[in-house]
Design a protein that fits this description.
Chains A, B, C, D, E: Keywords: Cell membrane, Ion transport, Magnesium, Membrane, Transmembrane, Transmembrane helix, Transport. 5 copies of one chain form a homopentamer. Chain A is an alpha+beta fold. Chain A has helices spanning 2-15, 17-39, 97-107, 111-118, 176-182, 188-191, 194-229, 233-265, 273-339, 354-375; strands at 56-62, 67-72, 87-93, 125-129, 132-143, 148-158, 162-167. The longest helix of chain A has 67 residues, at 273-339. Chains in contact: A-B, A-C, A-D, A-E, B-C, B-D, B-E, C-D, C-E, D-E.
Chain lengths: 379, 379, 379, 379, 379
């Protein structure tokens, strides 16, 4: 009965399903949430996005010698920047349907593109419509708390002398280096036109993909170490979790390849020939990012194989112990049974050394068996 | 014997094959039915479709200022709408061979297309024949009761100033938003020609795919949660069931890509240049739907892996308990056997504390073993 | 010993390898045969085909108003039909090398094509050589007795005003509907030229693929039901068997796609522009057949997964029962051992109720364990 | 102890690892050797091939009426054949660097091609350089002793009126049918030019691929039969072995497709238009060979699945027996324990029929259990 | 208890998790390190590379008759070599940002290319910018100590009469054969232009890939032998380790294919028509390398399957032993229990030969069972 209590005790603390669930919970619940996000199909004709409370508009208006940076209250205030010879970057943070539509009407953006800007969960794409080049893609961020990849949709509209960017979240973007470089007189960015500004934006977005991948790579690495050290359910949950993040990653990177390829092949007059080379550079980077994400996937598959093998290995170990215990116990149990029979005539039963001989046999036979097993390379 | 009865009892209520079957039945029988539908190969030269009892014909005849909506009794009554400058949408609900053939003869639809309209289980496709643009595809609905995807074939014939749609089921379609918009004077739909009407139809059909996918996504998500919480046969049945729904989904979405791509590449005079942009928008959506269905597939594969792992895990747990029980019992059984032997001389047999010492050893050895196992990280 | 006899008995009737083999035999031996056929690589420069004993030649000679149908004894008798304005269908049943070569010489068929007609196991293909359009493909039949797909090679030679078909087996083909339609004066077939006749043949062959697939689909469906109800070795044999049939199917369908695509792209003068539309229709069908065969494959893979899962499930059930029996027996065995020891002083040994208390403990502990296991969700 | 001896005995003869190894050895060691060959990466700038001891040169010099066949001692003796109107086939057996270089210099073969001729382990390819068409591919032989595919590199140089072939091994090639046909006056081969000779060679090489595949197919078939009858380690070794042979096969066939495709697309003046049709025929054959090798692969995968399933099945059988034995023994052991306890008061202990009742219960309970298991469909 | 001690002992030496970890450690820790390297995503706009302490510049300045080889201290000293009719090879070992930028400015290398030269972890690529042909790829080395593939980035800039190479590590490269050949007057390398020098470099780099693959192939082969002989955790660790090396290999080889393909398609004036043939030769080699790496992958997959099968086999063996021991022990245990019951009337209990009969039965029944099992082909 002691064994049984011990077992029960053990159980409650080590092998109860509840505990496994407890291990799983932080990951798995989040995981289901993640699945929800990945599976999300966005109906595309209705704008389901909740309008932002407040639209922040920032305008950078510059040429190589002058820079003017203004915070605007209304979208209409940005309209005068359109037809000036200097380059303007009009950054709209927080998407508010009426403002975006007003801007679209003024800048001659096609209604379908306005719809795309306002919609959610779009696949990255580029379009050239009526003298405007439009890119929609996602900026990725790595959330260190949840170890997950977050995305924010950004729309870039490249016109004759201006670039308009529409972002969802005013609190973050990846364009701080642009803001820094714009402050430097005669910097390359200040000398070149709006297309170079657009290139710089795409370059920063793609570079940030690498940053996110590096963080994710660190997670994969630590998951691998965990799998090697101790393959438990938690490792499996981590592998599953990371696989989902890789789906998010790939879903964002793969179409950006086409997007940038489209810009390079485009013969739009908005793009200076000298800038094409720069877009080709971004293209090389996005190809590299794609290759890398494939490598990540290979590593994950190989890790899952490793996990399964380790789990099997542990189980095989348990099986071996069982087999050996069963074999070693066999003679002792049988000998005990033999001399426990209630026959009148049991040889050596009345012998003084009988008991010791029997117990000796009980001890020696297992030792001999162990030697045999050892020789056979069983353990 | 108590153990045995207990076992039997347990069995009848918990592990009997019948019970598993009972779990499986609602899903699996339906599943086989589904397989039947998926595997269905439709002979294509004979029209096996049973003729509809009644053909309902509705005509919307409009330009930007006037709208006339009529319910017709006979297909011949729709013929005058053909050669008028306004746009006509002739919606035929319920396919009746003689009516369709009459309409085909009047509107100059090629006999092969008439055959396609009347046939069943066709692969989505588009065709341009003799001044007519023909699209055949399926509308998908999500049946919330059976959690399955249902499909209804629709044929869209775009002519000079008219669009004819042939549907199987009069009780449902996805065109209600069109009916709403048609009622609004000077709405975009009313201002533009028949090609824009055709675009709106395809757009609504594709948008409805997203709606269906969202519902299916919710099923996948709940299946995943079930797999994580409690991996039993029922979860497996659900995974199998969902895999089949994904086959249905993919089978419908993949060829629609080619269909819409074909319309964009088409140089038909029926399509206004301004409308091309709208078809490109639908093309973006269908690509997105396809990508999404691939993501669904990845999630399903990853879920099946999770299921298998969970099932293995549970079994490993059982194995561990067996191994531990076997080991813990070993010394007690052997000690009991040793002192149960009928030798005359058994040391400590006449000692008052002999019994208590033996039982103490029986209890202490398992405790010591538990400590050893614990240290070794066995549980 | 009773247990042992029982076991042996059980064994002979239920689990002996011989029995499994008996299950397997009808399928597996046939299966190996099938593998032989699938793996068959036919050396291509020697004609290994055994010449048919008898060549049956049937000629249909028709225009829209007249039809002449003749059974010929010799291949030479068909030669006059060549240069007449009416359309001739010369159907050669049973391939006899000298006859085929004679016909080839007369109709100007290239020696390489003659070789192809006479060879076996060719991959479907089309060729345009010296004013002749040549198609080689297989007619598929479904053998309901063996549930397997049988194939018969057919060569179709389309010339200026004639179609020559070479078949292996005089007893069957898929052209009966043609024979029916030919009897109808002014039927479309009678009005159009030889290219339309050729289209009708390909259409019937491809339509018959759907018929075969439907039959195979029914087999797959019944196999699935068997797997769900009772996953035994027989189901595995069936799955393996069906996988081989799918290889046969795919091997025949995939290249026919290229064949018909080639006819559509061909600019041969033998093909009327009006007929191209009909070939496109056949092309749509063969694409659909190919898609369907991919769906069949997906269903088979999913079924095999289901099988493996069911087998594992059964084994897990057995493991659980073992674990539970082991645990439930543990206390009874130990208690029996404890009170079986031959010490002089055994507490409660002389107590009248000692025996009943011990047996009571033996019964109560398992019951308590069962309750514990139940609560833990173990079964 | 008897059990134990029995077990040991059993072991030495049936389950010892050594025995498994013995099974594996003939295959596996060879297998590693094979892996070595497959993995062999040949550095390509140094000619590592050991020069042949002796170069055998045979020249066939022919037109439709004359044939001259000569064995040459030196490569220089073949030089006069170059500029004659008749066709010459110069067959060089045994590759000796100085000879090949001398020939290369005379016939205007580019140094890089000379390097290719002398190198080993090259990927099949074709090249057109300076008025010469060069093909490098492998002849495959099936070694019936080791059941493995052997390869011999052959270089075919097609010039204006000559074909030079370079082979490694003088003892064998696949060109005997050419030698036969050359002896026949006015045979097609004798009437046509050097390009037709080149076609005949490629045709024979590709036909021989089918011969090798047929032999390999027979091995696969016999392996499948073995797997079905008796899935043991030996079958696994065979499957692994055959998988490697398939890699060798595919590695040789896949690039030959491109090679012959290249010849067909080539616009070299060396190729008569009439011969193109023949190369297309070879192309059809090599496509067929490739398809077939894919089928072989599918069969192998399906066979491996079968193997794994059979092994699992056997194990499940063992598990079932264990479970049943455990359950059947349970009551007897417990009953024995109950009445073996040393209490003073044991009911029925002094009853004459007590012993027989207990033993009867020991026998009846298992029988009852067997009936129960049977009903539940457990075995 | 002896059994238990033996078990414990056994355990510590043979099956303890620590030991498995010890096996794994040298591989796995390195493995994680490797994963880190493979997963490394390099942000590309900042130059993160640490500047080399010292830049070594070596210039080979040659035409067919003269060779001048100089070690330079400063990058500026290499500038005069630019505009001379002879060919110059300027080899820069150790990348120092200011030096590279100075050289870039002088030789007219685009700033983006300068960035690429200085960056790390780039994907191999080629570019043609402003009269310069730029190749970036990796040289691979095989580290025999760690059995891993190491890579060093090299940038090759081909200008009018010069080739500039930028290497990271001054201590090693694969260009020694070039240095040898340059010393030989009138060698082909000395006679041809800078494009031939560039070809020679690419050829040597690609040839070295084969060298590395051969070494890796030897590792794979020895791993396979280990798997066949003794499938333990160490083998699994090796397989995982090798899989990662194959990812590194493929990652380097695949894009080099595009690189060299790009050079062949390039119409740059820097490339002599005669040299194209040589680049095609390199292209053949890199295709072969790629094919080979695919073969490596197939072998690895097949090896992993073999491993899993062997592990399962071992476990099955253990299971069989368990089953047999359980069955053989069954009768002895039950017989012991039967005659150990404390009934007054036990038949044959007072018989002299009772004990011997019972023990005889205990021995004979297992022997009979063994014979039965044997006949059934169980072991």
């Amino acid at each position: 009965m002691a064994a049984c209590i011990g077992l029960t005790f053990t159980h409650q603390h080590n092998m109860s399903p509840e505990k496994y669930l407890r291990y799983l919970v932080p990951f798995s619940l989040f995981g289901t949430e993640r699945t929800k996000q990945i599976l999300q199909a966005t109906p595309t004709d209705d704008v389901v996005r909740k309008d932002a409370d407040k639209t922040q508009i920032t305008v950078y208006h510059y040429d190589s010698t002058h820079l003017e940076s203004t915070e605007l209250q209304k979208v209409e205030e940005s309209f005068p920047f359109r037809d000036q010879p200097q380059v303007s970057w009009i950054n709209v943070d927080g998407l508010c349907k009426p403002d975006v539509e007003k801007a679209g009407a003024h800048y001659g953006i096609h209604p379908l593109i306005i719809e795309d800007i306002l919609s959610m969960g779009q696949r990255p794409k580029m379009d050239e419509v009526e003298g405007i080049l439009y890119c929609l893609l996602n900026m990725l961020y790595f959330n260190s708390k949840t170890n997950s990849v977050e995305q924010e949709q950004i729309s870039i509209v490249l016109g004759q002398n201006y670039v308009i960017t529409f972002q969802e979240d005013p609190s973050r973007d990846v364009f701080d280096p642009i803001r820094e470089k714009l402050k430097i007189n005669n910097s390359k960015l200040r000398q070149r036109g709006a297309d170079y500004l657009c290139y710089t934006m795409l370059d920063l977005i793609v570079d940030n993909y690498f940053f996110v991948m590096e963080k994710l790579g660190a997670c994969i690495e630590s998951a691998e170490e965990e799998v090697i050290r101790n393959s438990n359910t938690r490792s499996l949950a981590r592998i599953n979790f990371l696989r989902k993040e890789l789906i998010v990653l790939k879903r964002n990177i793969a179409p950006v390849r086409d997007l940038i390829g489209g810009i390079i092949r485009s013969e739009s007059e908005l793009l200076d020939d000298r800038t094409t080379k720069y877009f080709k550079d971004v293209y090389d980077h996005i190809i590299q990012a794609y290759d890398l994400s494939e490598n990540y996937r290979d590593i994950m598959i190989s890790m899952q194989d490793l996990y399964i093998n380790n789990v099997n290995l542990k189980m095989n170990e348990v099986m071996k112990v069982m087999a050996i215990v069963t074999c070693l116990l066999a003679p002792a149990t049988v000998i005990g049974g033999v001399f426990g029979m209630n026959f009148d005539v049991i040889p050596t039963a009345h012998n003084t050394w009988g008991f010791y001989t029997a117990v000796g046999a009980m001890l020696l036979i297992p030792v001999w068996m162990l030697v045999m097993f050892k020789r056979r390379g069983w353990f």
